[in-house]
Structure formats: structure tokens, C-alpha cells
Design goal:
With 303 residues, this protein is α/β, with parallel strands linked by helices. The protein is built from 13 helices and twelve strands. α6 (138-148) packs antiparallel against α7 and α7 packs parallel to α13.
Amino acid sequence: MKKLLFSTLLLLVLLSACGKQETATTDPVKENETETFTYQSETGPIDVPTDPQRIIALTNGPNVLALDGQIVGIDEWTNMNPLFQERLEGVEVVSDESLEKIIELEPDLIIAGSYMNNLDKLNEIAPTVVFTWGKLDYLTQQEEIGKLLNKEEEATNWVNDFKERAEATGKAIREKIGEDATVSVFENGDKEIYVFGNNYARGTEILYQAMELNMPERIEEEALESGVYTLSTELLPEFAGDYIILSKNPDADSSFLETDTWNNIPAVQNDRVFEINTKASTYSDPITLDYLLDIFEKSFLSN
């Protein structure tokens, strides 16, 4: 009886040791597995890495950079933006057509636009999350990127802080220039001039939405719904506000600035034209918004 009891105990010990050994063997494998969670994208649920380390951002790259996302591939337009060049040092420029290069970069997450080609092929390379431009407002877009990167709290904190700062700045500006004062945002093109509504980057979201400044009636009529309207030099006075933000493109034609039409606009004569760099102003991500908010604050309140 004692022998049987001893044998049983010995067998239990051996089984226990084998179990521990098996656990020790399999645990490292589990540790090497990529941890994922289900993100509710606009095209349906998709499993994405909890902590992505090799992101290819074919769109929304600036939003990812603002959350310190680990980008290995970026679109050419973001790469050319002077605000992001230092952050993108060593990052490859890719597109929805450069599938071989994307494969070589071994991404664990791809962010793409709904209008892009090869979405199915991209999804075979890595989980591909699609966003439709303009479907979300500029602040919700940042919060959505925060959810995707598992940094929702960080994104939300920035949104709340930005809204508070922009609201306070807008209040101070309106107190100085008057509640009824109007602001226009112009940009020089190759042979034309653009004027913008309230959601087309160039700081328009800050000026008209966050700071609640007014746009001239003609801009409301022509650009509020479409976002942008093209006009000739002769029409500039009809769209000019009491203050003008000039998004100046150094690579485009700026000869209209020498015309009598431009120089006879009251905002020009009263030194109420504030320039921004077009190349650094074509996004509505946190990095760009903070950059432009600082410019607007200094321009309006120090002038």
C-alpha cells in the first residue's frame, strides 16, 4: 500500500514537472506573438496591432506623427512638408502603387485612403485601415487615429487642450478686431487665386470653427459648401475681408500682389495681411494646427 502511494505521488510530481517544462517551452512563443485588438473601421472591424511598430501611412501621416507613431513609409506630399521633414528622416516615400517597396518595408499596419488603388493587395501585406477624406471633422479624425494606434486618451487630451486654447485666442482676437470683423483666406496658384471656406486646411478650421471669426458674405456663398473657390484678380475685392490670411505658395505665381486691384484693398492698405507658408499649411493635424494657431495669435494680437 505504501509502495502504491509512493508511486502515485512520484507520478504526480513527474507530471507536474512535465507540465512546467511544457509551459516554459511554449511561453516564449506566446510572448513573440503580436498582440492585437479589433478596431472598428469605416469598412468594418479589423484586427490591428496593439502597439504597431512599422506603420505605412499613405494618408493621415501627420496625424500619426502627432502621436509619435512609428512610421516606416509615408506619402510624397507629407514628406515634402517642411513641418515634418525632420521627423521623417530615413522614412521611405511610398504610394498605393509601390507594392514591392511596401512589402520590403514589412509593415504591421497600413493606413490608406478610400480612393486609393490596390486596397485588397495592401490588406494582404498588412492590416489596412481605410479613411475617407472629409468624412470626419478635423478633430474627430485625430481622435480616430488615436483609437487606431491605441492612444485614444493622448489624442483626446490634445483635442480638449487645443479647443480650450483656440477658443481663448479667438475671444481675445474678436475683442481686439471687433465681433463683426471678417477674415479671408487666399492662396496663389499658377494662374489663379483660391479662396477657402471653413474646412480646407490653411488654418481655416482654426479661424472659422475653433476661433469663430467671420468670413465675408461672398465666401459664404461660393466656398462654404465646396471648401474652395477659384477666382481672378479682378474679383479679389469682392471676397476680401477686413483681415486677410495669405497662404503664399513660393512655387506659384504671385504677380497679382503687384496689381492695383490688390493694393487698393483696404486690408492691404491697412497692413492687415498675414502670410503663412502654403507648403506648411495644407493639413489639419495637431502639429500643423498648433503651428498655425501660434502664427495667428501673434499676427492678430501683436499687430
